[in-house]
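Lab notebook, entry 581. We have the chain sequence and a SMILES string for adenosine-5'-triphosphate, and the next step in the workflow is to get a structural model of the bound complex before anyone spends time on docking refinements. Request logged below.

Task: model protein plus adenosine-5'-triphosphate, output structure tokens.
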Amino acid sequence: MSIQAASPPTPAFRKLRQLSALVDLRHNAVPAISLAFILLVSLAVVLADVLAPYDPLHQDLPAALSGPSAAHWLGTDTLGRDVLSRLLHGGQPALAGVVLALGVFTACGTALGILAGYLGGWVDRCVGIVVDMFMALPNMVIILAVLAVFSQSQTASMITLGVLASGNLIRIVRSSVLALKEELYVSAAVVSGLTDARIMARHILPGLIGPVLVQLSIFSGVALSVQTGLGFLGVASKPPAPSWGGMVGEAAEVMSAHGFFLLVTGGIITLLTFAFGFLGDGLRDLAAETKKQPAASLFRKPAARGGLSALPPAPVPGARLSVQDYCVGFHSDGGVKETVRNLNWAIQPGEILGLVGESGSGKTVTALSLLGLLPSNGEVTGGRAYLDGKDISGLSETQYEDIRGKEIGLISQEPMVALDPSFTIGDQLTEVLRLHHRENRQALKARALDLLHQVQLPQPEGLLSKYPHELSGGMIQRVVIAIALAGSPKLLIADELTTALDVTVQAEILDLLRDLRDRTGMSIIVVTHDLGVVADLCDRVLIMSQGEIVEQGGTEDIFYSPTRDYTKKLISSTPNLVKAL
Ligand SMILES: Nc1ncnc2c1ncn2[C@@H]1O[C@H](COP(=O)(O)OP(=O)(O)OP(=O)(O)O)[C@@H](O)[C@H]1O
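Result returned:
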């Protein structure tokens, strides 16, 4: 397979780029002008008490329906009240209604969309039914019914509008979450042992800002139309208090003789609705420009347990981890295909074991299956795996959560994309540390610094406030190792951890792993296709080909006296190694 990520740094910085593009409206004149107009009108409405030249209720009947003048810039209405002052004050219930509807729309749409997309299963199905209901109901009829029940309350009508309209947002958020779940930094957060709630709040939610902003902008226009429409109908606002919809209604009655009155009252609503629409279009175009193919996932949720042999073999005594008659298969249309077959091996405490083989030989699948992290169509089809004598094959998701990060740590193939680009190194380290230690901020910070010291990063204090893109590849790799060590696992699985690094940094990272093993007694499984790494670091080697173990033994034995042709060919295909032997 290749449970590989797209090449860095594209996926890691996609979200940052998307966010910056969304706020970079300078090059998009129409959305930028629209945004400026919306802000200007909102500010004027908020400051109505200061800006309005007259009391909006003050009547001057002799001056009724006079056109624009120095005294009344936008003229007067049928009772001689100043139109500008009434527009400024009337904007307050209009914008308050829009803000309320937006709040409910966002909360409902985002929360239900995230839950449906992230949790899937029955939650997704239930949310789907709710969305279908929202879409099928006639919104306006329901809002009028709510107004009748709640004594013409604008609050009730806007809350109802927000809820009913959120169906579309739920669908959009749900599909965005499905894509975000495939991001490697989300996968890495799962491996670290973070709870679903925390992953949704910290790693999924920030990635939704783009699509949610687009929908908010479009819905603002709808909410404004509904609010002013209700005002026009004389419901949801009580005269003589000014309201934009009410003013349009009043102007419509005298439109043939006094068209200017309708022009300014209807004009502000029309212009704002257009501005919301243009802003939404601009945001959508920018989001589309920055959209890239989703990165390949490191893994998906584990498959259900199935097909394990009825009588488990016994664990190897004293071994940190042992696997026996271990098989992993994948479901496809043609049934289950076993890609890893009859593995029998063990790793001792403090040992470094190399898992070697060509691409597709089953190394990553074997490693991920131990953490319950196979793609959704994969499962352990036979045999058992034991961690310190305890059977860990085919556990439930909750049981695996207790193992990930705490008993077994994983360093994924792509360190650059295992970190969330929106959070500092300090945030990401303390987030994982908080899982394992119920301590205050200061104590967690001290632990984070200690971990950065352990992975030999210079000046760790300064690093805590840095973002991943400010670090070199070698430094990122060390941070990822530090995060994997946060739960003090007894076994660390390092999947191709030096592949993307240059030779000098590679050597430093290998030294670091050796040093960590010596100091902590941790066992380390090094998954690699690089025999040089194995020769340098590993005590024992396991050679895999086409899902099976071809040969295993001490590193020196394997390199100096291989017994199998496949191993001999593998060694001879690494010229530098041959020279060194
Ligand atoms: N979701 C899947 N469905 C079907 N087959 C899969 C799936 N995931 C992996 N495989 C198969 O499992 C086999 C082993 O893949 P694995 O990634 O473990 O290889 P690897 O030895 O780690 O190679 P690499 O070094 O390239 O990652 C591959 O032949 C692949 O086709």
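Notes for the group: The chain is about 55% helix and 10% strand. Worth checking against the assay data. The chain has a mean pLDDT of 84.
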